[in-house]
Amino acid sequence: MPKRDREATRARLLEAARLRFAREGYDATSVRDIAKDSGVDATLIFRYFGSKKRLFDEATAAHAPPGLLDGPAEELVARMVRAVVLHDWTEYGGEHPLVAMLRSSAHEDTRQRIREEVCDTYVTALRDLAGGEKTEDAELRAELLSAWLVGIGILRSVVATPELAKAEAGDLAPHVAAVATALLGRPMSGLPKDGGSEG
Amino acid sequence: MPKRDREATRARLLEAARLRFAREGYDATSVRDIAKDSGVDATLIFRYFGSKKRLFDEATAAHAPPGLLDGPAEELVARMVRAVVLHDWTEYGGEHPLVAMLRSSAHEDTRQRIREEVCDTYVTALRDLAGGEKTEDAELRAELLSAWLVGIGILRSVVATPELAKAEAGDLAPHVAAVATALLGRPMSGLPKDGGSEG
Amino acid sequence: MPKRDREATRARLLEAARLRFAREGYDATSVRDIAKDSGVDATLIFRYFGSKKRLFDEATAAHAPPGLLDGPAEELVARMVRAVVLHDWTEYGGEHPLVAMLRSSAHEDTRQRIREEVCDTYVTALRDLAGGEKTEDAELRAELLSAWLVGIGILRSVVATPELAKAEAGDLAPHVAAVATALLGRPMSGLPKDGGSEG
Amino acid sequence: MPKRDREATRARLLEAARLRFAREGYDATSVRDIAKDSGVDATLIFRYFGSKKRLFDEATAAHAPPGLLDGPAEELVARMVRAVVLHDWTEYGGEHPLVAMLRSSAHEDTRQRIREEVCDTYVTALRDLAGGEKTEDAELRAELLSAWLVGIGILRSVVATPELAKAEAGDLAPHVAAVATALLGRPMSGLPKDGGSEG
DNA sequence: CATGAATGAGGGTTCATTCAT
DNA sequence: GATGAATGAACCCTCATTCAT
């Protein structure tokens, strides 16, 4: 681990920030906490990121799991569930980043960021499956399905209800397929046997 | 009326606290904010409640809408959706209290409080409908449906996706009925024509 | 000296601020310095004044010596010299407040404040003596005389040139009278025998 | 040309420092400001000058306009006024360096520097004109005249009173001659028709 | 020799909370 | 019992300066 390495230091700050901001939210996290966690002087946060706010923005920049939108259309919902249930979000404290960001949703900026990622990534893709704009209330049904995914993420990690907290992707497969098929008006498959390329 | 002043002051503090905590979250709310909002000296918060934390606990004490669990079983889900969509949560800044509390979920205490209300009120009632403990994965299916309700609440107010934000209970009725029926394995009705006894 | 006395505490803060700001200037003075000097907690600065800047503004609020503009017109210049030379400016570190404020003249706000007091109090009164607006270049001559007063104040305290630093009002009397008479185009008297009501 | 780079870099740092220190004062100027202005790494300030303080000292080293003390004695005061009013002090932000240094007069070192230049250059020369040490109060009268010059500089640039701010040397000529003659006890001329050898 | 990463002290300011009055 | 003055810790951030590379 080389000292005096700009990129390495930046990365360590980002890593610590990601974890703290996810677990404790923006307000409950101090720059000194992040500095201590990463073993880096707090001043460097301002040198490299300018402000606590900008560090937050960069640390929580949206990262949909790669490949989420690629692959067979009928498996899209299954891939989304896997993103919530299976994907390795250790970097974000074990939660889907969107769920973690809710903890900072007291600030309108954060709400805006959540809104953009939910709409651009999830709702948009699901709306296309639901028949696009030509179909009556495709948007609403896409939002309802997105709401379900978000809700599952919250009950799993924030609320930690007993069954969802320990559920694996396979446990949810039949229910997912049934509900998605009902909402989108077209057959959706469950989850493939293996976890695919997911971590 | 010196006797009732104490109660009136307490009530005003609680009211202001409820609104602030819901809108801005625990950390972003200062006791001085609450004092100013309610026109009361900040010291009284400590006299009456002991600490900011205890004021928060009391202000956000769970309040399921009255009558939520009463009435025909097949309309339970419809009543729950109405609790999220229709009920007048002005006191809590316009959001379902559970959704508002997510903003303060940086603290484990708050998570515990959310967990209890979600499980005790929503999951429990839905599990009974899904067949009780004797039925395979009734708990999981109840949690999945609860997750959906929570998710709808979040997308409506926090994320404010376009269609859900403006949806009324009637818009969601058919979808609700279809999904609930599928998940619970028994027919659930949509919403009655009128808003029922909801405020 | 009563504790927990709002006005007394405010006054002590103002006194300490006046001295520090005068001696060291705005930037070199920290709120903690002022707090330590006055034996008051630094937080109270913000409670009572809102910000360091507003404390500065209040501490350096212009105070022309009372009676400066009252009395025989031909003695006005003499009174002004006395204000610079004799008046007890201990509160401001021994200098005329305007001179002290030059130490903070890096900030445009302060320059504006100096400008207003110089123009409103000194230049205006002298311009009237020089013949008012109807006389050719009365304004210029009034400004030139004001410049002289300011310059005397600076050489006395900031630069501390040997003779001016120790000069008393009587030492300057003949020169003052001569120059003022020449500049204003009307006879100005020197200083009265005694120091009058000045401290 | 690696040999001259060092000198060129030093010169650029000095130039930027001169401007910043003059305009904003010592405390409000950061070494990073100077480094940025000159396009030079901030570390070089410490390599070349040792500290911010020593850079300040070097950047504000006294520079009486060349030729100030040469020429006919009866024109000395006129030349001094020209130094304040006409000389191109762009390097110092447009003000006479002594005036600019008042902005940093919170520090005794700076006051000492101002004192030396005022005494050695201005007061000394004027005292000789006033009759030298053998004449009663020649020193005082020399200081009074110096005070006037300093005061004019301040009202022109810091305070920016309307007439002095726009005055040119010619506007001040008659008043200068009259006052100087009165104070020094010997005839002083106004300004020559042209600007003379001034830059 | 020059770059820039690192440092530690201190800046103004706000916080929840306590204690006189 | 109610008011508000006082407190001290902590906040984000900037500073002049040093030390590896």
UniProtKB/TrEMBL annotation, chains A, B, C, D:
SUPFAM superfamilies: Homeodomain-like, Tetracyclin repressor-like, C-terminal domain. Residues 30-49 bind DNA. Residues 7-67 form the HTH tetR-type domain. Keywords: DNA-binding. One of its GO terms (molecular function) is transcription cis-regulatory region binding. InterPro entries: Homeodomain-like_sf (IPR009057), HTH-type_TetR-like_transc_reg (IPR050109), HTH_TetR (IPR001647), Tet_transcr_reg_TetR-rel_C_sf (IPR036271), TetR_C_16 (IPR041678). It comes from the Bacteria. This is DNA-binding transcriptional regulator, AcrR family.
